[in-house]
Amino acid sequence: MNVQLLDRTLDKCFSENVDALVVMYGLEFKPGKDPLSQLVQEAIRKGDFEVKPGKVLQLYGVPGIKARRVVLCSAMTLHRGDLAPAVSGVWSALREAKVERMVWHAVDGWDDASLYSVATLLAEQSYVYTTTLSSPKTRSLSSISLSMQGASADLQASVARAQACIAGIELAKEWANRPSNHATPTMLAGVAQKLAKHKNIQCEVLGPKEVAKLKMGAFLSVAKGAVEPLRFIVLRYNGGPAKQAPVVLIGKGITFDTGGISLKPGEGMDEMKYDMGGAASVLGTFEALARLQPRLNVVGLIPATENMPDGQATKPGDVVTSMSGQTIEILNTDAEGRLVLCDAMTYAERFKPRAVVDIATLTGACVIALGHVRSGLYANDDPLGQALLNAGESCGDLCWRMPLDEAYAEGLKTKFADVANVAGRPGGSITAAKFLQRFGREYAWAHLDIAGTAWRSGAAKGATGRPVGLLVHYLLQEQLPDLPAPRKRTSRTRA
Ligand code: BES
Ligand code: MN
Ligand code: ZN
Fold it and tell me: Which of 107, 339, 469, 480 has its CA 20 to 30 A from that of 23?
């Protein structure tokens, strides 16, 4: 999806040769002398249009306007909450028309956040999954031009960011949406290797032998039941000085979660193809980094495997030794996410990271706690927690801080190992985070439980690409400021 910014008056937009022109009014409508103003005034007077979020009026073949289709809409404010109904209203008016190129003119202008919101919301609405269809209907919308009068040069950076995030979100959606036989651990590693063709990105892929050598006993115990070989993916983005400590992102990469011997019920089990949503968000974030080339260093770690029942599979009660040396009693093989993550967290220590953020479709309990609106956020470091929370607010990819009181770890105690992999049902998202916390004591660590936000079920079934937006916005805040331009030598000689 191509996004661009146009510096245009509304009048100038009338001569744009595009498939649709969208005109977005703000708080009030001030009629001008243009051909639209008469129509809009008339429509408002007759009650056919209102300046109110979500109100839309579609016009066709307006004399003096080159675009055949014109859609009027309004957003009282430039907040995402007001823009979302405008975008979905506009898109339902245009869905059936094969709109390839669109100009969206904001009468009250764009700012950084509104531009990001409209571009990403339009991308979201127009997205279609095609990979496993024999004759897919393709997406028509390929280019959106956001237009305003007096566009500042600063907004160009916002456009680049929006476009990079859209590419990252869509890469994440593509891989999360694929069924497990089209998104194996090996295929995810292939995506990472392809990303490494970009400037400043490198990738290394470890297989079962290397992982065994690293003594990742927890990760290995999950892969034991699977025929499909595991992969441990290490991605590096080096856009900052070599000495700068990296941020490490760890994505849960369970390409299918049957529950293992603690088998899940059949109904809705297909949705467990989405259990690599964390991994997909790390890949998507690297896609955005490749495009934006910010001044910072980032490591991406993806422990990828299926979780399958089998004669070889780990059984409830089995005790394994994690890479950290801590022993774990696996009381429930369906609590596998924390087992693959804990070894990746220990592996992360070697990078002497500035911060480690893991992203995982970790618990059904998080869906109960926060629904499908906000991801669960845990952090052992307040500035890191706050930075992630703020990043989410700034782009509408929301999360919510959850507690890590020591009392929540009580249920993880067992006689048979250093720690059990499950506690009881109460506070299930929190007890999972308490388990992970034990493996992240060496650095500032945060955990995003995206079980409720990585995909939607029902009629709108599909991956959301979350939390790519949040992660990219967080990382961009972490980048080093550009070095001051070297001072010009003057002809003045030194004293
Ligand atoms: N991948 C699931 C979590 C999940 C379930 C996400 C449903 C979204 C929707 C995870 O591996 C899991 O199975 N967790 C268990 C943990 C339990 C056994 C302590 C769960 O949430 O039921
Ligand atoms: Mn599970
Ligand atoms: Zn899982």
Answer: 469
